[in-house]
Amino acid sequence: MAEMAVGKSKPKVNVFDSEEDLSVSLAKYTADLSEHFAKDRGAFTVVLSGGYLIDCLRKLVEPPYLETVDWRKWHVFWVDERVVPKDHADSNYKLAYDGFLSKVPIPSGQVYAINDALSAEGAADDYETCLKHLVDNGVIRLSTVTGFPKFDLQLLGMGPDGHVASLFPGHPLVHENKKWVTYIKDSPKPPPERITYTLPVINSSAYIALVICGTKEAPAVQRALGDGSELDPLPVQMVSPEDAMAWFLDKDAASMI
Ligand SMILES: O=C1O[C@H](COP(=O)(O)O)[C@@H](O)[C@H](O)[C@H]1O
């Protein structure tokens, strides 16, 4: 069983020789948290990102976890989504469905995809309204510290520029501190229109796993795990959940630390 943190603790940095080893460890970490929250509160709220993360969840859809995880307790959300149809190659929902959700028995009503019939602004408002309903009915907790929703686990990736979710370095969205979900129409990484959780929502979560593979990401990882003295931190440097943060790095991503 993973150690369950009480209060904010120092981030744990895990470095693996191979992506295969990383995937094995990430599966155990996620399954342990699933067991903890399913017993503790009868629900496990999990936030996915897009990108490479989904591939790193491959061991979670295999035995023993396929049988031992209580998938009926899972509620699945996206930290960001591209404003494209759900069957589009750029859709984070499609990526997660094809690589993860289609392989595990999570009830379909507990998978909260964006409404792909709406504009970016409409989809962000609609997603925030959906989260508010789930707070009202007790599926999602509210942080007593920040008043923002407190997800049990957010599984995040990071781009080579240090972006997390769709919060990009130097973009004003990084400083949004009122909304839960917002939108961007000029994303520097295509596609340009996306919705994203704001930093306060990311940081109000109980646990965050930052999952990063590859040499292109190594400079941003080095900066993020440095002394944090920069005046203009990267979005990844601003990530700090309420209870515990764990880094899952392959040896290429960790090559400069
Ligand atoms: O555009 C996005 O990029 C980040 C990082 O993706 P990766 O392929 O470099 O792992 C991802 O976390 C985010 O969800 C996605 O929309």
From TrEMBL:
Known catalysed reaction(s)? 6-phospho-D-glucono-1,5-lactone + H2O = 6-phospho-D-gluconate + H(+)
| Glucosamine/galactosamine-6-phosphate isomerase domain span | 18-243
An annotated GO cellular component of this protein is: cytoplasm
**Recorded metabolic or biological pathway in which this protein acts:** Carbohydrate degradation; pentose phosphate pathway; D-ribulose 5-phosphate from D-glucose 6-phosphate (oxidative stage): step 2/3
Extract the GO molecular function terms from the UniProt entry.
6-phosphogluconolactonase activity; isomerase activity
Some GO term, biological process aspect, for this entry: which one?
pentose-phosphate shunt
The record's InterPro entries line, in alphabetical order, gives:
6-phosphogluconolactonase_DevB, 6PGL, Glc/Gal-6P_isomerase, NagB/RpiA_transferase-like
Keyword terms, alphabetized: Hydrolase, Isomerase
Enzyme Commission designation: 3.1.1.31
Q: CDD domains annotated for this entry?
A: 6PGL
What is a single Pfam family found in this protein's UniProt entry?
Glucosamine_iso
UniProt record similarity statement: Belongs to the glucosamine/galactosamine-6-phosphate isomerase family. 6-phosphogluconolactonase subfamily.
Q: Please identify the protein, giving its name as recorded.
A: Probable 6-phosphogluconolactonase
